[in-house]
C-alpha cells in the first residue's frame, strides 16, 4: 500500500469532518462508527492532525474534533505529511539510500515519474474539494462492513 493505514484513516476522517457543519465539533466515536475504524486507533491518528494544526479537539459531552483551518487551505499533501511524513514524496520506492539520477535504483526512472505526479496532485487537491465531492456525490468513505 502506498500510504499507511493511519494516513488513509486520517484522510477519511478529515474528509468526513470537512463535509459537516464547520461550526460544530464531530464526535470521534461518531467518526469511528461511520467510517468503521477502531475508536482508539482513530484517536491516535486524529492527535497527529491536531498536533500539526489541521484539526482542533475539545473534550466533554459536546466535544470531538473540527478543522482548525479553512478546508480550502488544507491540501492533501498537508494531511499526508502530518501523518506519514514527506518521505513518500522524496524517497526511493525500494528504500535505497542515495537513489537519484547519479545512482539510480532499477525502478528509479519509473518511480520518479509517478512520485512527481502524485506530489503535484497532493499539492493541488484541497480538503474542501474532497469534502464537497463526498457530500455532493454521497461517495463511500469507508470499507463496508462484512456481514456474516
CATH topology: Arc Repressor Mutant, subunit A
Tally of alpha and pi helices:
6
Shape summary: elongated
- Just give the CATH class: Mainly Alpha
Rg over C-alpha atoms, rounded to the nearest angstrom: 17 Å
Helical content class: 40-55%
What's the pLDDT, averaged over the residues?
Answer: 89
Low-confidence segments, given as residue ranges, are none
Tell me about the biggest sheet? 2 strands, antiparallel
Number of DSSP E strands: 2
Structural class of the helix and strand makeup? mainly alpha
Integer tally of domains: 1
Describe this structure in words.
There is one protein chain. The chain has 148 residues and is mostly helical. It has one domain (5-137): Winged helix-like DNA-binding domain superfamily/Winged helix DNA-binding domain (Arc Repressor Mutant, subunit A, Orthogonal Bundle), CATH 1.10.10. 48% of the residues lie in helices and 5% in strands. The protein is built from 6 helices and 2 strands; from the N terminus they run H-H-H-E-E-H-H-H. The protein has a two-stranded antiparallel ribbon. The longest helix has 17 residues, at 108-124. The chain starts with a helix and ends in an 11-residue tail after the last helix. The model has no long low-confidence stretch (mean pLDDT 89).
Give the structure's gist in a few sentences.
The chain has 148 residues and is mainly alpha-helical. It contains 6 helices and 2 strands; from the N terminus they run αααββααα. The chain has a two-stranded antiparallel sheet.
Task: Describe how the helices and strands are arranged.
Elements: H1 5-18, H2 28-35, H3 39-51, E1 55-58, E2 64-67, H4 76-83, H5 108-124, H6 127-137
Antiparallel strand pairs: 1-2
